[in-house]
Specification:
- The complex is a heterodimer of chains A (129) and B (205).
- With 129 residues, chain A is an all-alpha fold.
- Chain A is 66% helix and 0% strand.
- By secondary structure, chain B is an all-alpha fold.
- Chain B has two domains: 106 residues, Orthogonal Bundle (Rna Polymerase Sigma Factor, Chain: A); 81 residues, Winged helix-like DNA-binding domain superfamily/Winged helix DNA-binding domain (Arc Repressor Mutant, subunit A).
- The longest helix of chain B has 25 residues.
- The chains are: A mainly alpha (129), B mainly alpha (205).
- Chains A and B meet through α1 and α2 of A and α3, α4, α7, α8 and α10 of B.
């Protein structure tokens, strides 16, 4: 080969530049440009964000629904609480007063006397004819 | 005159520039305009850009991979990426730095693919070898070709960007996301490697 040292640099440069290398005839500018434009799309700025818009809307809707559900649950609980502190009827109050007025030994446990029991007690209290 | 000055559009700057700088600035401005037109799907603009950059990219890939078909495929893929990102393109750096960053990323992907799949010597490779043997290429070209294949990708890319595109060390560092000192070291090593291959071949012959 007999390359002189001072020629080495120049030969390496020329080799690396590859200026003799050309693309094939099918690789024409016009054809390439047409194919690229035909089969591809420009990624517009914010295009990816647009894809997430429906997802974001669904998420917002779910949040709103969840919020409303939580609120309505609170209202129901409040309603139940209101019901439980509703004032007693007069008849219930009288019955309670009677029961409180009974002596301890006459307190028959948990069983509250109903109307027929009272009738029976009244009958027993009256003398036999 | 600072060769790395970026075109500012100022008329005073224009007066102070030498001819090479004016040409570079005009070209840079032209590429920005082309990119705007390409983003609007202007086929003529795409053709113009391809005309400007097809051969530089092809030669870069050809020397990197030593495969004509792969070099053309990768060149096409660079233009596809350029087209897709044309609407988002902002001239922060020189156009050459941007386009060769894309090229280098694709090259690395291709090298990784080649490493994953078993090495098959293609017909094209065999044709090249035969043509070398038959004297179509000069002997030193063949030696450099085989030596270049063995050089690591980072050294090879840095050397090719320096020699083919005459990019500055700073620009090469930007493309390769490394430091200027690393670039200088890689280029120096690659040159030494190629020189030694020529020297050793010379001694054996």
């Amino acid at each position: 080969m007999n390359i002189k040292p001072d020629q080495q640099e120049e030969r390496i440069e020329r080799f690396l530049q590859a200026e003799e290398s050309e693309t094939s005839s099918e690789f024409a500018d016009e054809r390439l440009a047409r194919e690229i434009l035909m089969h591809n799309e420009v990624d517009a700025p914010g295009k990816n964000l647009i894809r997430f818009v429906p997802l974001a809307m669904v998420a917002c809707l779910l949040l709103v629904l969840l919020f409303n559900f939580e609120n309505s649950k609170g209202v129901n609980e409040g309603f139940v609480m209101l019901q439980s502190v509703e004032p007693l009827l007069d008849s219930d109050k009288e019955l309670l007063e009677d029961l409180m007025g009974l002596p301890q030994e006459m307190n028959w446990g948990e069983a509250l006397p109903d109307e027929s029991t009272f009738d029976l007690l009244v009958m027993l209290d009256q003398p036999f004819d | 005159m600072n060769g790395a000055r970026v075109w500012s559009g100022n008329s005073l700057d224009l007066l102070c520039m030498n001819e090479a700088e004016r040409n570079a600035s005009a070209r840079s401005e032209k590429e920005v305009t082309l990119m705007k037109r390409i983003s609007k799907e202007d086929q003529v603009a795409m053709e113009e850009l391809i005309g400007l950059w097809k051969l530089p990219l092809y030669r870069f890939f050809l020397r990197s991979l030593n495969h004509h078909q792969d070099a053309e495929d990768l060149t096409q893929r660079v233009f596809i990426r350029v087209y897709r990102s044309s609407a988002r393109y902002a001239p922060k750096a020189k156009f050459s730095t941007w386009i060769f960053t894309i090229a280098r990323n694709l090259l690395i992907d291709e090298i990784k693919k080649r490493q994953r799949r078993p090495q098959i010597v293609s017909d094209e490779h065999i044709e090249n070898r035969n043509s070398v043997d038959s004297g179509n290429l000069e002997e030193w070209n063949e030696v450099l070709l085989s030596r270049l294949e063995a050089i690591p990708e980072n050294q090879k890319t840095a050397l090719l960007l320096r020699v083919q595109r005459e990019l500055s060390y700073k620009e090469i560092a930007e493309v390769m996301k490394t430091t200027e000192s690393s670039v200088k070291t890689w280029i120096h090593r690659a040159r030494l490697d190629l020189k030694s291959s020529l020297s050793s071949t010379d001694q054996t012959s």
